[in-house]
Amino acid sequence: MVFNMERRTTPFAKMYLIAIFIILYAPIFFLIFYSFNSGGTMSHFKGFTLDWYRSLLDDKRLLIIVLNTFAIALISALIATIVGVFGALAIYSFKKRQTKNTVLSLNNILIVSPDVIMGASFLILFTIAGIHLGFMSVLLSHIAFSIPIVVLLVLPKLNEMQPSLIDAAKDLGATEWQVLTRVIFPYITPGIFAGFFMALTYSLDDFAVTFFVTGNGFSTLSVEIYSLARRGISLNINALSTVLFLFTMILIVIYYFLQQRSHVKTMGVRK
Amino acid sequence: MNNRKMRNLFMIPYALWIILFVVTPIILVAYYSFFDIEGYFSFANYKKFFTPVYLKMTLSSFWYAFLITFFSLIIAYPTALFLTRTKHKQLWLLLIIVPSWINLLLKAYAFIGIFGKYGPPNQFLEWLGIGTKQILFTDFSFIFVSVYIFIPFMILPIFNALNELPSSIMDAATDLGASKWTTFKRVIFPLTIDGVKTGCQIVFIPALSLFMLTRLIAGNRVITLGTAIEQHFLVTQDWGMGATIAVFLIIFMFIIMILTGTRKRGV
């Protein structure tokens, strides 16, 4: 079978894949390359410099924005994970198929609805509720759009769990709480971590929703990059993109290993 | 009994979330669409939506979204197909997905440099002797960058659908004398149509509502439904009209979801 698979990788297929890879990565490396340009533009490479990185470090305002962005991402991912795991448990516990599907559809609305709709409707919501636009409104909206993702990543783990596992624990005299903390949670841990990481990346990446509910005075990285980019090219952004790229790579490596581990684990259980 | 009590306890924060952040916002958008800019109840916004200006904008928004989805599919399908035939396919897939995790704004910003007056494509044109062309702020750059951004989202569901196909099906088709093209047209593509539908859904709906790229890459030349909503909410402060467009966007979203609906959701 392996032989069969390899036979089908034609030279054309390889060329095509390589071309796609180059196109997908070229803009990112283009940015990184010019972040070392002493010329100050994204076109003529004059000479190597680290000035842009230095000015990045000196930029107090940007530093605060970076800290805000991470604070929002971590707090929102954490809260969304807790609410999402409980939500997934609730959906899992519904016996009726119809109830399950209805709640799941409601869950998925925010995933499929365009960012602009979410942003605009949250803006109305916060204005009516009298919530000041700033840290709080951004945090609440990030929690809101991360919850359904966590639910979707945790639920398959719950469904994959054999009910006999819970029955066995109950027969052996475990209380509901013990079943939850000793049997269910350890089993779905990979899903919980995957959900947390997804929520983290969604929050770090979000631009549109934040743009609507951020108000004056509070800014996240995406919003800041947008306003900088509208003013034109500044190699500070390039330096920033290098840092963010490296950071994203680290996150991905962690995520990959977590998944890899969870994969091995579930395989082990299945055997 | 105990079980039910605990379940209800779990349900509280999640149910609150559904009520406050899923149901209420939709109701609020619908409610606001009935108020004109002075705050009086009226159907004026709906009347305004059916004037040529807004209808033309809606049509052009659909046209751009269609083009973006079409090119994404054309490029993504072969990529997904070839990916399933590589040796370490999961790793390759991950590498394809990685760029989608890089901040969207940074990618858009990169293209401002790339498509700029002195960017690589223009230097290449110069070298060919054609001379510098305006690439940024054109329909081409807008569609190119949008496709660039959406490709990974199109590849993923198609890859998953292809990956589930047992290779014995392809072997059977070949054994029965089907050519490569026939196998693809009659066997592989129909069996992965669900993945294609999911991919189109994932791309088309956001493509209708893009607003950041229209400003940065298309230089306000392209106005999508998303741009119009953003304009009404954040610039002209005409929330009523913005909400009306949002209502129509929600309706379009549901229609698209029904049209591309698959029994098995792969998110």
Written account of the structure:
The complex is a heterodimer of chains A (271) and B (267). By secondary structure, chain A is mainly α. Chain A has helices at 2-7, 11-34, 51-58, 60-93, 97-112, 115-129, 135-160, 163-171, 176-205, 208-213, 221-231, 235-270. The radius of gyration of chain A is 23 Å and the shape is globular. Residues 1-7 and 264-271 of chain A have low confidence and may be disordered. In chain B, 76% of the residues lie in helices and 0% in strands. Chain B contains 13 helices and no strands. Chain B has helices spanning 2-32, 44-49, 52-84, 89-101, 104-114, 120-128, 139-164, 167-175, 180-191, 193-208, 212-216, 225-235, 239-259.
Keywords:
heterodimer, A: 271 residues, mainly alpha, MetI-like fold, 2 domains, 0% strand, disordered N terminus, disordered C terminus, B: 267 residues, membrane (chain B)
N→C terminal distance of chain A: 22 Å
Mean pLDDT of chain B: 88
Structural class of chain A: mainly alpha
* Main beta sheet strand tally, sense and closure of chain A: none
Distance between the amino and carboxyl termini of chain B: 34 Å
Shape of chain A: globular
Helix content of chain A: over 70%
Radius of gyration of chain A: 23 Å
Per CATH, which architecture of the largest domain in chain A? Orthogonal Bundle
Approximate shape of chain B: globular
Beta-strand segment tally of chain A:
0
